[in-house]
Design a protein that fits this description.
Structural class: alpha/beta
CATH class of the largest domain: Alpha Beta
Protein name: Aspartate aminotransferase family protein
Helix content: 40-55%
InterPro entries: Aminotrans_3, Aminotrans_3_PPA_site, PyrdxlP-dep_Trfase, PyrdxlP-dep_Trfase_major, PyrdxlP-dep_Trfase_small
Distance between the termini: 48 Å
Largest sheet: 7 strands, mixed
CATH superfamily of the largest domain: Type I PLP-dependent aspartate aminotransferase-like (Major domain)
Keywords: Aminotransferase, Pyridoxal phosphate, Transferase
Strand order of the largest sheet: 4-10-9-8-7-5-6
Organism: Streptacidiphilus cavernicola
Family: Belongs to the class-III pyridoxal-phosphate-dependent aminotransferase family.
Bound molecules: 4'-deoxy-4'-aminopyridoxal-5'-phosphate
Order of helices and strands: HEEEHHHEHEHHHEHEHEHEEHHEEHEEH
Number of strands: 14
Radius of gyration: 21 Å
Shape: globular
């Protein structure tokens, strides 16, 4: 029996061992959801103990546990965010929850989101994601959420062909025009990733966030920060919003919250937006007792004195090393990010996007240099993402950069 229940793939720390026995250095922390790497002992032990005692109970019995985790998350949340709703298992449904909150609180229905954003793969979040390729495959998505997808901040290839700071963040100020001409006054929410993850690791300038806050205030729109990728230390801060000057009304979390990859999602909000009734948004597998346990155990580690500070210090060094690499490889046209969340944009000599090279670098890195990277097939398509687990030491990061450099040299 046991042989059907176990798998030959395994992982420890930054290393993934494949079914055929290869040891790979994972610079993408799983699906960007393993902040502490593979099989972190503290989280594993907590989950094992919990599984032996109780692995599932109906949500009525786990409400206190959910609220305890909520309290811990809120202690780190940006000012004004004081309530939690922990009933999800994924980032997609956490984002749907945020939209339900905004719709119920405002009595309006539309959602503004940005080109190249990714908010999930349910029908409504497909509609909200700024990826025409995906939306185009599912025309019914447009009936699940009425989304107005507008150009956002992507300074390296500005949608308005401007350059920062002379642009006066036209990408944000234009939103007011869209509101006037295209929305008929029914916008409930604006959803934004503090750093666009799948879209290509785009980091907006702080004025962008100031401006969208002003617009949301002026028009009574709920501002949702989708921190599914960026929260829980990824940028060297518990929440990227805090680091980037974004002051949201609602924050959504998932991915890294499950510590070692257990599914769990959470929604944090301002008090006046705590409007949902329990039966309006909950799932059999949401806020599972194992997910809650993993999240609490992961927070134990993230909250250790100096842990996030080390991520900030190491992350800055990683950024410098990647920029040095870019100087040596002309195909790298931009390096951007913070903490342990970096993207390298690859371009042809004429400046156009080099998508085939991006695929080649990722493939060669894994096949020849044992380094796992991820691309952004559904975003810009020409961004290599470097997002190691937060436990990576300076030596680990140097090793990642060395292997990436070798892959760039071999692929060009
Ligand atoms: N938001 C963002 C920013 C994401 O990156 C993702 C997943 N890539 C999601 C939402 C959806 O999360 P999930 O896959 O857990 O549904």
């Amino acid at each position: 029996m046991l042989q059907h229940a176990t798998h030959t793939i395994s992982g420890d720390g930054l290393w993934l061992t494949t079914e055929d026995g290869r040891r790979l250095l994972d610079a993408a922390s799983g699906t960007f959801n393993l902040p502490l790497g593979y099989a972190h002992p503290h989280v594993v032990q907590a989950v094992q103990e919990q599984a032996g005692r109780l692995s599932h109970a109906p949500s009525g019995f786990t409400r206190n546990a959910s609220e305890r985790l909520g309290g811990r998350l809120l202690a780190h949340a940006p000012a004004g965010i004081s309530r939690s709703w922990i009933r999800d298992a994924t980032g997609s449904t956490a984002n749907e929850c945020a939209v339900k909150i905004a719709q119920k609180a405002t009595g309006r229905r539309q959602v503004i989101s940005f080109f190249l954003s990714h908010h999930g793969q349910t029908l409504a979040t497909t509609a909200m994601s700024g990826n025409a390729f995906r939306r185009g495959s599912f025309p019914a998505a447009a009936t699940a959420a009425e989304a107005l997808v507008v150009p956002g901040a992507y300074c390296h290839r500005c949608f308005y062909a401007k350059s920062h700071p002379n642009c006066a963040v036209l990408c944000a100020t234009r939103i007011e025009e869209f509101l006037e001409y295209a929305s008929s006054g029914s916008v409930a929410a604006l959803i934004v990733e503090p750093i666009q993850g799948n879209g290509g690791n785009a980091v907006p300038p702080p004025e962008f966030f100031h401006e969208i806050r002003r617009i949301c205030d002026r028009h009574g729109i709920v501002l949702i920060a989708d921190e599914v990728q960026t929260a829980l230390g990824r940028t060297g801060h518990m929440f990227a919003s805090e680091a980037l000057g974004l002051r949201p009304d609602v924050i959504t979390l998932a991915k890294g919250l499950g510590g070692i990859g257990l599914p769990i999602g959470a929604v944090l909000m301002r008090e006046e937006l705590d409007v949902l009734e329990p039966h309006e948004h909950s799932f059999t597998g949401g806020a599972s007792i194992l997910g809650l346990t993993a999240a609490n155990a992961a927070l134990d580690v993230l909250e250790e004195p100096g842990f996030l500070e080390q991520v900030r210090i190491n992350g800055a060094l990683l950024g410098e090393a990647l920029k040095k690499l870019a100087a040596e490889h002309p195909c790298v046209s931009d390096v951007r990010g913070m903490g342990y969340m970096w993207g390298l944009e690859l371009s042809h000599p004429d400046g156009s996007r080099d998508i085939p090279l991006t695929h080649r670098v990722i493939e060669v890195a894994e096949r020849e240099f044992g380094l796992v990277l991820r691309g952004s097939r559904y975003g810009r398509g020409n961004v290599v993402k470097v997002r190691p687990a937060l436990i990576a030491t300076q030596d680990d990061l140097a090793e990642i950069v060395t292997r990436l450099g070798a892959a760039l040299a071999a692929a060009t």
